[in-house]
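Working notes for the structural subgroup meeting. M.R. asked for a predicted model of this chain before we commit to crystallization trials. I am recording the input and output together here so anyone reviewing the notebook later can reproduce the run.

Input as submitted:
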Amino acid sequence: MLAYFFIIATLLILMMTGQYFYEEGKDITSAVFYVGVIELCFFMAFRSYLVGADTKEYYVGFQQLADSSLRNLQSTVLYGFGGNYTLNFEYGYRLFNKLISYISHNPQTIIICTGLMTVGLFAILIKRYSPNPLLSLWLYVTLGLFQTQMNISRNSLAIIITYFGIKYIHNNKFFSFLFFVLIGSLIHSSVLLMIPIYFLVNYSHLNRKKVNVYFVFSLIIGLILGVGRNIVVHFIPSKYAYLSHTANVKLEGLLVGVMYILFFSLIYLTNLKVSNEMIKENQVGTWMFLIAILFYVSGIGLSFATRVAIIFGTFMVIYFPRLAYTHGIDPNKRKILIAIIVLLSGIQYILRLNLNNIGGTIPYTFFWSI
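Returned structure, recorded in token form:
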């Protein structure tokens, strides 16, 4: 757990340092941002296979794929940790593993390469889309996404690849957007659920009134799906049926959903005068927020729903800073909002670290220490 306290303490120092120099007339935001990214890359890449509930599956899967031939890559049956069940890896992820195995057959190699790619690519997206990259980096850690990505690194890599197609949603270039979704789906097919975002953004423009109505609908539909679990599970493809077998509801995911609602409400309700502009400038992010909330709420009965929510919820670390930096928001009010968000996210993160292990990522161990 000390590793995570070290990370947030470092990020807090970097944020304060960046702010101090900015007020002194020197903008070192990019420099301190990349220091933070390097730190996160280090902890993501050099974790042991025991950090993250699913990490050990990627670890043993790599060992088997490294010994498989390219010709038999798709047909190779992969057994999970312990050998009592099989793993369903898409062909793209199998090929990725095989290519990495040419570097080294050591299974730690896949953890290192996937970790560096996940954090590195996400950092590029943050720098591209977030008006406050350091705040996004802080939310990335304190909202639990950094540790979630340690757990479900295959899903996370697919999500981030898909996010690179977001710019084509704005440009109304469907096939360019679809290209990135399909590339991501070769790693994890769940990102195909991103396709409707294109049509929602381009053919159903949001405004303040619609957001208010759709937000209520997201809560209601989410509750219906969660309560009607026994009906919903029959519509789940057999490939993903195992996700519905666990009876324990992921309270961790519900907490994240509550934090998302809290941050959105805090920014949105305290700036109603510019709320239409806020929504207009963030059509993609707002649709992703509404869908993420729907799945987080349905997580009260559907344990797999929180994993679906992550497909859309990962973008929130970029979305909330974008809302806070909407043109027309008073700069002093913005500083207060950011301070409150930093404080609340930090407090809930420390509480979560003491309440659960966030996807099996606690305790943290380096690979060379086991």
